[in-house]
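Minutes, project huddle
Topic: does the predicted pose make sense with adenosine-5'-triphosphate bound?
PN asked that the exact inputs be recorded in the minutes so nobody has to dig through chat later. Recorded below.
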Amino acid sequence: MASKGKVKGIIANLVIVETDEPVAQNEICMILHGEVKLMAEVIKIMGNLVYVQVFESTRGLKVGTSVDFTGKMLEVELGPGILSRNYDGLQNNLDSMEGIFLKRGNYTSPLDENKEWDYKPLVEPGVTVKAGDWLGEVKENQITHKIMVPFSFEGTYIVKTNVSKGRYKITDCIATLENGSDSLQNVTMVQKWPVKIPLKSYKHKPRPFKMLETGVRAIDTLNPITEGGTGFIPGPFGCGKTVLQHAISKQAEADIVVIAACGERANEVVEIFKEFPELEDPRTGNKLMERTTIIANTSNMPVAAREASVYTAMTLAEYYRNMGLKVLLLADSTSRWAQALREMSNRMEELPGQDAFPVDLPVIISNFYSRAGFVELHNGTTGSITFLGTVSPAGGNLKEPVTEGTQKIARCFYALSQQRADSKRYPAIDPIDSYSKYSEYEGVIRYLKENVSDLWLDMVSYTKDILKKGREAQEQINILGDDGVPVHHHILFWKSEVIDFVILQQDAFDPIDQMTPMERQKYMLGKVLNIVKMNFDFEKFEDVSSYFRTVINSLKQMNYSEFQSDQFHRYEDELESLIGEKKVA
Amino acid sequence: MEKIAFQKIYTKISKVTKATCSLIAENAGYEELAFVHKRLAQVVKIIDKEVTLQVFAGTEGIPTNAEVIFLGRPPSLRIGPDLEGRFLNAYGDPIDGGPELTGVETEIGGPSVNPVRREQPSQLISTGISGIDLNNTLVTGQKIPFFANPDQPYNQIMAMLALRTKADKIILGGMGLSNDDYLFFKNTFENAGALERIIAFINTTEDPPVERLMVPDMALAAAEYYATNFNQKVMVLLTDMTLYADVLSIVSNRMEQIPSKDSMPGSLYSDLAKIYEKAVQFPDGGSITIIAVTTLSGGDITHAIPDNTGYITEGQLFLRRDTDVGKVVIDPFRSLSRLKQLVIGKQTREDHPQVMNTAIRLFADAANAKTKQENGFDLTEYDDRTLKFALEYTEQLLAVDENLTINDMLDTGWNLFASHFSKSEVGIRENLLEKYWPNGKESELVNIATESNS
Ligand SMILES: Nc1ncnc2c1ncn2[C@@H]1O[C@H](COP(=O)(O)OP(=O)(O)OP(=O)(O)O)[C@@H](O)[C@H]1O
Ligand SMILES: [Mg+2]
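Predicted holo structure (tokens), as shared on screen:
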């Protein structure tokens, strides 16, 4: 029997419920407000008073209203049919809601219960299995969706039956399992899992070693992220966090992409809704929407559901990871999630930490990022969740709790710089402040040597050196004036500009430039470094800039041309003759 | 004032603070309205039987035995066709001497649009101001603020801009407006013969500040009515959102909430987003566009109010007085319309993106030259030309007192390029140069410039 209670107090979306019956932390309850049920989550228990955060507006709610506890935490439904869906933060299907405006208490089913799937069994009766093991598979869009032993099953089971190949609905019983004493357990294609509990039905979590190509040069070449890696993108407003994340979501080498639009603009989500069904995955040629699921809790949607949305997204990602897939999870922006926590914490009058954020914010962030990662499943295959979150620091100042909390756990740091954005040097990733700790991982080093080139790491560190020296030269020039420094300073500065314009800067809206495969990145970096390593002789500083501007122009035209096309070679020839002119023996 | 029959009247207030009063009452709904001592108030907290009410007009002089009557409904507006041409206060009551509204009592601050029911903003709005149409093109369904210092003529610019666009309705939400500015808006709209397109909700500095918290919701409820029922293009003007946010901080302070940055409430982002996200393009052609004003103190955009606004809106229009030409301009560096990509070069002439970017790049070169000059370094001949270009560009295109069509702006841009630069210096795509470069200009002027410098 589930517990019942009555509303005792209301402060915005914090509601105090009185009950004498047992309730659990994070348990979900329904507030029976007239015709509508308002979903809420227990966040604090003080004797017979239970504090719940309501996932909806509490307008009109009265003291004395009945509350039904559900005995369950906030759960998502896992099964075929998640891909291509647009969910809200609580996994309600937005497309099946009626009307233009969101109605309170309008909870829609995340999966289609009437659709039939072509099921193929993978194990025979008699086999021993445990939670997360694959029983069969169906085709969901273009991916092979594994039907797994429910994650909530503890211990080992013997497969008693497994249906034969055929068409089934998600609620049909497809297998029966037995564990020693208990009676037979029915298994369907759908199961539930509480979003705040990490899904750990895998063997272990080794260190990531394999680079994940994003097609963004400033990331892949300079500070690569790995399959199963974590990274974050802090930056002031308008510096390009969302554009960068969208670019990665389109191009990255992932089987599945889960996008959590967390407290940001609705129009940005609409852009994905409209574009992704049309755009193609550059690797498979399938429509991008086929591999994508969107969790939209835009900034005008209820704040508590915003907090839930990132967990919902993470749990969906974990589910697909357990099928041995490469999942990319993007959250924009994790600061909005932290602010949702702050709003609740303030309403509960907890002792605040820095900037009024809850004191345990770093722990919450850290626990969340830790759910990403590269895993080996019990059957020896591997899967991964690569997680990239954006951070929106107040006033653009990185000395603030969300940035600092994230920096402790995320391994890649892609700092967007206001200055670069102002001068339209997109993506505005600061090449000097940003880092990837994966570049130091032995496995990653080995991987890059084997898969890109033996010399790759030396090339990259040389590139970073020149960028640093170029910046120093520029500072000198700014202080002493153009003719107050030797011409050599100008040359050094312009060499770093070549790297900046050709490697770092990348037009996210150009059909060719937007995505650079690793092979092309290697080729272009080689080209650029050849120029950087050359000796040049100029009489006047004015000649340096005009010469390098033309060099940059040819290289940029190469970036805008199809790789190794005639056009590409034409610009390459143009470049070679430019270089030839100036070359000092 | 509303008359309510058969309502229980309470006369025992137990607590009074600067902004709120509390009493023991039954059956009150959250966010419900009430009258306290004939002043409008709203339920902001209920703990057991104790109900806390925020009194919009302030609690000065409220006695403990004041009459408290609950209205049984949240804030609402009588919405109907007779809204047109009306000037109303923050409660939606007429202040223009006209008749009471007769429309359907409709809850304000209602739910948001399901994101999957939105359309991508797509229709160009032309304002005649090059700093906007050329450099920061706006589209219907966009939300964008002016960032301006308090001494700049943002209200004048907003009124002019709104009248020039082809909006079906202009809804003004005035918060903390000076009486003079209120009369300015009224006269301007009247003189333009546009009154039937206007609806205004006005809170002036003479009204209690807390009342202005209702203004945006009022304006946007009216906007939703016209955009959804009649598929109209509605433009909502909100001025000044900084004064709105200031009141949020006063209220949260009086309710003893923990402040976050700049003594603003921790919920500032959500509070502002709820307003701005009402901007929307509907599939049936109706739209709500929000143009707001966020005044800055000392040009500081890292203050919590402009900072949170920037994180919510789709760009910002930065007003600045240019001392070289003595005019107010829209700063091309610090302004941005994030939705311009959707229309420029598509609904405008093909050369739009290139002309825009080239002009700004050359203007940036001029800014560098200026810094050099100020630091006492020598200028090159190229520097000199950029400075001349910048002056004319500012005067002819950045100043907000011009009224041009977008094609005129583009042609002006080409003329400026040709007067000061060679084709290779502007670096525009060959096919566009052939088509748009003014004939015969380049060789002449640039040669003169080069000669005079050598
Ligand atoms: N790679 C890019 N190429 C070209 N333009 C870009 C690029 N990145 C960003 N921009 C420009 O900058 C604008 C703002 O970018 P974006 O929306 O990604 O910023 P943001 O950091 O997400 O801001 P906010 O924190 O306010 O959401 C874009 O609308 C676009 O005009
Ligand atoms: Mg963004």
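Observations noted during the meeting:
- Confidence is low (pLDDT under 50) at residues 443-454 of chain B.
- The longest strand of chain B covers residues 39-47.
No decisions taken; revisit at the next huddle.
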